[in-house]
Amino acid sequence: MILRDSHKKMIDAVISKAGKDCPGVLDIIGVYGSALTGDVHEHSDLDLMIVINDDKGYCLADCFILEDEAVGYDIYCTGWHMLEEDALCRQANISKLMDSEIVYCRDDSVLERLESLRSKAAAILSSDERYEIARDIAEGIMKYSYTPGTGIGRLRMTAAEIIYSSMDAVMIWNGSYFRRGSKRVFEELEAIKLPEGYIELVHNIASAASSATIIESLDGLTRSLYSFIGIDGSDDALSVKECCAGEASSTCDKELPSASNISGSYEESFSNWRNKMPGAAERGDVYSSFMNLASLQFMLDDIASEVDIPSYDIMSAFDPGDLYHNVSVFDNALKDYRKVYDSIDLPVRSFADVDEFIGVYLEK
Questions:
Q1: DSSP string of 105-160, one letter each residue
Q2: Which whole-number Å values give the CA distances from 49 to 97, 110, 191, 269, 327, in the listed order?
Q3: How far is C-alpha 25 from the chain's CA centre?
Q4: What does each C-alpha distance from 111 to 27, 37, 251 come to in angstroms?
Q5: Which of 171, 304, 323, 360 is most buried, by the most CB atoms less than 10 A from its CB?
Q6: Counting beta carbons within 10 angstroms of the beta carbon of residue 100, is it exposed (0 to 12), middle (13 to 18) or buried (19 or more)?
Q7: How, if at all, do strands 26-32 and 101-105 pair?
Q8: Positive/negative CA dihedral, 39, 45, 46, 47
Q9: Tens-digit pLDDT profile for residues 56-104
Q10: How much is the pTM?
């Protein structure tokens, strides 16, 4: 495990704050992600599994940017019910549950509880139950739809959702899960049994410059996946070309932006994806550029479904032939979203260094 001094200070600060503000509520702190796998770089953040046994523990959560590192951090709290959900293996990103190296625990009983959930997940992944779970995930792809003529941006979002679900299905079918970050996805996929032409089809979707190419590759991907999983793919309802239901329009009244409904969202977007965009460009990694930009679009869409913020169509500007252009697209979208913060005088939580952050965090 590789931890910078700033990371160690953050962990100590969480433990200190828990003892002061919510005694007995912090059960476990574990480290996962790049600090554990060794994929660290100068702009790596810190992935912590902070397990709490009461909602009072959410006072430990925070999201912020350290200016000296140009890195965003998301101190996220996890309830036991969330780990219990992960243990059902309904998706393949369960490394937090399975691999976290424990750096703090309240007592042996919480470690026993964690090990019980890990054993439950491992048992599912080694049993025939995983095939049914994978089939359910794959069949869920049928819910994704698009309306022809709505633009390539929305089609790319549908494509990203299908890629995510298909990867979950393939990994679970193989009795595995993703242990490393997005830039290592294909290394992990290449180590397991895959649908015919799967990796090439995913690359074709991410690299497509036209709607027609995306649709053709999506159709090939889903048919290959259905054949692999054991779903009858002859039904036209399973063909992406026939999914024309479109997006359901929201009729609910939206809230005005406020600190209570958008606070932390800018910082979280910065933390999750900002530094991954130039990394993808440097590697010539079209897939990562595509999926990271789509993730920002997903987040802004999710906020816009309930809060009255501007509409963003980031994925229409995605350019598979110029990944540095996509870095600018990401930065410009984040800059535009910052204006929502400014409109309600909500400051971005940004600190000169970790010591300044800790001073404020412990007094919050």
A1: ES-HHHHHHHHHHHHHHHHHHTSTHHHHHHHHHHHGGGG----TTS-HHHHHHHHH
A2: 8, 13, 27, 19, 29
A3: 26
A4: 9, 21, 46
A5: 171
A6: buried
A7: antiparallel
A8: negative
A9: 999 999 999 999 999 999 999 999 999 999 999 999 999 999 999 999 9
A10: 0.91
- Single-letter amino acid code for the residue at 7: H
Give the Å distances, CA to CA, from 291 to 164, 176, 269: 9, 21, 13
Q: Chain centroid to CA 146: how far?
A: 22
Q: Which two tokens stand for residue 308?
A: 């009255």
Amino acid at 151: G
CA distance 175 to 134: 10
Q: Which of 362, 349, 354, 330 is nearest to 3 (CA)?
A: 354
Cα radius of gyration (the chain): 21
CB 52 within 8 A of CB 125: no
Q: Does domain 5-125 have CATH number 3.30.460.10?
A: yes
Distances (CA, A) of 35 to 2, 94, 124, 139, 225: 5, 16, 27, 35, 33
pLDDT digits (tens, 9 = 90+) for 146-178: 667 779 999 999 999 999 999 999 999 999 999
User: Which residue ranges make up each domain of the chain?
Assistant: 5-125, 129-242, 259-361
